[in-house]
Amino acid sequence: MNKWIKKSAILANSDGYLDRLQSVYPVTLTEEREIPDEIIQEIRRIFEAHDDEKLIKLLLCFEKFPIKDPYVAFLRQKRGVFIRKNPETIRRVAEQLYSLGFNGVVKGIKEPKEFNRQIGTLFKRWLPEMGFPLLSESEFETFKGICLLSGSDKFLKDYAQDKLGYDIEKGIDMVAKAGNTYFFLGEAKFLTDYGGHQTAQFEDALRTASFEKINCVGMAILDGVVWIKGKNKMFERICKSGQIILSALLLKDFLLESNNTGDLGTKESREEYGNDDVLFEKIE
């Protein structure tokens, strides 16, 4: 077992873990999505005219559709074509929209993003709090010491693929450098429950952690229920892994150690960690 897995499990089962985690993933009242007034009035006009096709076609332009319907994702792909070819489906979906009323439709498209969809953004916002510089590409490549690459999700992924040989399709949340020559590609997840979408998120993070080159390695930065011991398949899989998997709260310590030792951190823990071993065995 990689020692950072052991340290993370101990940390997550210690006093104050959730209290400290709020510095990384703060839960705040999220503002509604902004929709221009002229668009709202256009929705009203079409809604009151009961023009089913135009209403659905317009609402499909928004990130959040007002209702949850299994057919909506399909309709989004080729709005004009599929709407025209499936009149009964359009009529059914439209009736659901009319039953909400105009205000209900507007409320639906303005609904704030779910917390789980903000994880990557919150993590990237927290990264500078570790105290390491967040740099542009040219600065990042010449900086001596620990640093983080600044950029959008797409930019980080493109950089990792073009410059570091990253060959996994999934995007990443962090590109870090330590020891001047070692690079770390991290994907962060705060898993709040078991099963379904959360399991898929867990698998995505492990895929990133499976990446390894001579001077570059992937890591899964996981927090939440994944660290609870018991009938938890995620915990069992992590404990059998030699990959770099750790809590965001230990990321700074990991980078500092890697910078000081010149170790990518991928070797399995074969040392005696004294207190850590005892504490790990006592986790309930």
Question: In terms of topology, how is this protein built?
Answer:
Blueprint: H1 3-12, H2 17-21, H3 37-49, H4 52-59, H5 72-77, H6 79-85, H7 87-100, H8 102-110, H9 119-126, E1 134-135, H10 137-142, E2 147-149, H11 153-164, E3 174-178, E4 182-191, H12 196-209, E5 216-224, H13 233-239, E6 245-246, H14 251-261, H15 275-281
Parallel strand pairs: 1-2, 4-5, 5-6
Antiparallel strand pairs: 2-3, 3-4
Helix pairs in contact: 1-15, 4-7
Overview of the molecule:
Keywords: Endonuclease, Hydrolase, Nuclease. InterPro entries: Restrct_endonuc_II_Tsp45I (IPR010443). This protein is of the alpha/beta class. It folds into 2 domains: 3-25 and 116-281, no CATH class; 37-110, no CATH class. It contains 15 helices and 6 strands. Strands 1-2-3-4-5-6 form a 6-stranded mixed sheet. Strand 1, helix 10 and strand 2 form a beta-alpha-beta unit. Helix 1 (3-12) crosses helix 15 and helix 4 packs across helix 7 (87-100). The longest helix has 14 residues, at 87-100. The protein starts with a helix and ends with a helix. Residues 268-274 have low confidence and may be disordered.
